[in-house]
Design brief:
Largest sheet: none
Radius of gyration: 21 Å
Distance between the termini: 18 Å
Helix content: 40-55%
Order of helices and strands: HHHHHH
Number of strands: 0
Oligomer: single chain
Number of helices: 6
Shape: elongated
Number of domains: 2
């Protein structure tokens, strides 16, 4: 891990600087660290691979990482189809092919599409279980350098 130690350490400013919102990810991390928070407990566990270093850089620069090509178009389509099968089964009034059926009218919402995570709230985490397994294999294993 010594080859990527500098990447894993958060830089510290020489003097306090005024805050401007929204904060860049590195500044937000420093602020949290200075207040005793531990935002990056897993940071020290990142692998030293170019893949992991690129993700760490993206997180520092933008606060998020974009990983194109993690899923094939066919895999995305299959997951999307599975989601819609579930939605149409549990909400018979909702039809994938009819966007007017997706929103509330004068009665209760036929499909809670405004929920932040309707799949988890409706105990349907299994709907994306294959996608989670693929993501673990393709992203998290190389990111942390382990299958554990």
């Amino acid at each position: 891990r010594s080859g990527c130690q500098s990447l894993l350490a958060l830089p510290r400013p020489s003097r306090p600087q005024p805050l401007k919102w929204p904060l860049p990810a590195a500044a937000a991390a420093r602020l949290m660290e200075n207040r005793g928070w531990q935002p990056d407990r897993l940071r020290g566990s990142l692998a030293c691979s170019p893949f992991a270093q690129d993700i760490a850089r993206q997180l520092d620069d933008r606060g998020y990482a974009v990983l194109p090509g993690v899923f094939t178009a066919e895999e995305v389509s299959a997951e999307y189809d599975r989601m819609w099968r579930f939605v149409e089964t549990v909400s018979p009034g909702v039809r994938r092919s009819d966007p007017t059926s997706w929103r509330r009218r004068r009665c209760a919402d036929p499909w809670p599409c405004s929920q932040r995570d309707m799949m988890q709230l409706y105990q349907a985490g299994w709907v994306f279980s294959e996608a989670r397994e693929r993501m673990a294999e393709r992203v998290f294993e190389p990111l942390y350098g382990t299958k554990e």
